[in-house]
Amino acid sequence: MAKITPKDLLKKSSKVIDLDDVDISKYNFSIEDLDDEKSKSHALLKKILDSSSACQVSDAYSSVSGRSGVIDGLKPMNDNKVYGKIFTAKTNADDWGTSLMAMDNAEEGEVLFIYSYGKPASVWGELASTCAGEKGIAGTVLYGWARDMDALVDLDYPVFALDYLPNAGKPLGLGEINVDLEIDDDIIKPGDFVFGDQNGVVVIPKELFHETMVATFNVKVKESHIIKELKEGRLLSEIIGLNR
Q1: Residue 14, SS3?
Q2: How far apart, in whole angstroms, are the C-alpha atoms of residue 214 and residue 45?
Q3: Strand, coil or helix: what is 62?
Q4: CA distance 224 to 221
Q5: Residue 158, exposed/middle/buried by CB under 10 A (0-12, 13-18, 19+)?
Q6: 57 phi and psi, to 5 degrees?
Q7: Structural contact between residues 140 and 80, judged by C-beta atoms closer than 8 angstroms
Q8: Where are the beta strands (DSSP E) in 62-107?
Q9: CA contacts within 13 A on the Cβ side of 241
Q10: How far apart are CA 155 and CA 151, in angstroms?
Q11: Burial letters for 72-101: b for 16+ Cβ neighbours within 10 Å, e otherwise?
């Protein structure tokens, strides 16, 4: 059977692609492939990510590293999915100006990851989302608080946060951008990969990106086989070899 090429992948929906026909060993994924349409890996990488969930990416990363990659507490503020290279910022929650600094310095296609601390206050809302979307930023992940939920839920711009509240501080711009972030036991670095959807947010270190993408592909292959067997009448416990 002929192998499916990257161009073929773009022409077909994920529902009709037989993943067994893709020779994953011929691909070497990097985060830069996401924005490089000339890359051999671009089309397949986009196809894998567009059809994957945070659950699958987390399972894949766990198989590679023994860690989940999940940043506890983060949840979607709307129905949009996001993935891409991280641009970081760190600020006191009373300073939403640092969020604008991050936005101004991030590249098109990057995802802002903003860590705010101190007394709860919003560092992101409707105006920032609109501006970031116009600039081509892929989305915003806040380890902190958002606001303007009446607008955010309808915007075509992904926002993830710990929660939402109405109050905000001032545009001081006293925080840091493009720095490492330490959240509990996780170290999030500029250039790492983030994936967020309705299930939550997963961060993958850039040095483990290729292995995790290959593992994500394999997770999808395995799950497609299981679904096929379930539709043929087999029990899930039987398929996975659960001994009762």
Answers
A1: coil
A2: 9
A3: helix
A4: 5
A5: buried
A6: -65, -40
A7: no
A8: 75-76, 82-92
A9: 0
A10: 6
A11: eebebbbebbbbbbbbbbbbbbbbbbbbbb
- Distance from C-alpha of 225 to C-alpha of 76, rounded to nearest angstrom: 30
C-alpha to C-alpha distance for 67 and 64, rounded to whole angstroms: 8
Residue 144 backbone phi and psi in degrees, to 5: 175, -145
What tokens were used for 23? 């020779």
Q: pTM here?
A: 0.89
> What's the CA gap between 99 and 129, in Å, rounded?
11
For residue 24, give the DSSP letter.
Answer: G
Alpha carbon 33 to chain centroid, angstroms:
15
Q: Shortest CA distance to 141 belongs to which of 154, 153, 157, 127?
A: 157
Distance CA 143, CA 145 (A): 7
pLDDT in tens, 133-191: 999 999 999 999 999 999 999 999 999 999 999 999 999 999 999 999 999 999 999 99
Q: Are 65 and 206 in contact (CB under 8 A)?
A: no
CA 198 to chain centre: 11
Residues 159 and 17: their CA atoms lie apart, in Å, by: 30
Q: What token pair was written down for 16?
A: 């009709």
The pLDDT value recorded for residue 11 is 44
44 CB neighbour count, 10 Å cutoff: 24
Using CA atoms, how far apart are residues 144 and 122, in angstroms rounded to an integer?
A: 7
